[in-house]
Amino acid sequence: MSDKKQGAGKLPELLAEYADVEHQLSDPAVHTDQAKARTLGRRFAQLAPLVAASRELDAAHDDLDTARELADEDASFVAEADALTIRIAELEARLRELLLPKDPNDGKDVILEVKAGEGGDESALFAGDLLRMYMRYAERQGWTTEILDNEPTDLGGTKSATVAVRAKGLDSAVWSRLKYEGGVHRVQRVPATESQGRIHTSAAGVLVLPEAEEVDIEIDPNDLRIDVFRSSGPGGQSVNTTDSAVRITHIPTGTVVSMQNEKSQLQNREAGLRVLRARLLSAAQEAADQQASDARRSQVRTVDRSERIRTYNFAENRISDHRVGYKAYNLDAVLDGALDDMIDALVRADTEAMLAGTE
Q: What does pTM read for this prediction?
């Protein structure tokens, strides 16, 4: 059986799931468990467009039948029948898109990491620009952000930063939008430190991970080695005089997470565990499903200028995404968080590739 037929066959199952989720959400007892209510609410929001399209398609078919019957007696209904035929084709295409296999992480929040790469101080300044861009984009989307860790530089750049990005209410679009941002970002501009006006090229890396709930990844405390040390700021200056910074090592995998943003050792430990869970979840998914690995092939491995997914050209005010050939001359707006047009182009290309695979 083709993927297309399998997708169509799933529609009754998904409609039944929507009805079940709707019923559960109507039960006041469910809302005493906030985690469960949040999960159900997000699933309800994910299924709602599919249900709406299915209902509209059913109504359009009914209207078409009626218009065709009336057209036999009144020619004025012929045009209406023709318009409904076109509308039904559009709705069927929309439904095919909505029935495509979903990324299992699309309903998750995100842990986003930005790291300076080649280019020294200029790379760190650019990493700081990227961090602000994502913070502004999240603000525009109505999401919340929490800086879990940040290593600033003397010039006001960012050596490395880790941010949790979370949706509010029933919104479940954080991963589905930000997952395309993982990779190497290249900048071409005259650095603030350049006295002769020459354009330099440098790079920064972005890693996007779906945030894991404790139920997604269970970590055995015996598998952790936790070291504490004194936080340090730009130039090696002490941020505080207590050993509040935390380094967590997951012994079975060798994964290491360091946190020093908070003054409390406990807060840094909790933030570190959130990042560790996200990294372990991503690694487990990649190991279990080669398709997941393929979907992350653009995620940054080494922050090298040659492995870029996007270029930010300041002289031309140009932004270029090399994966889909997207180009626009509104770099200033993009850096202020206007990412939707570019992300929409990536989503469309992703959808078109999946649709082509079902034919």
A: 0.69
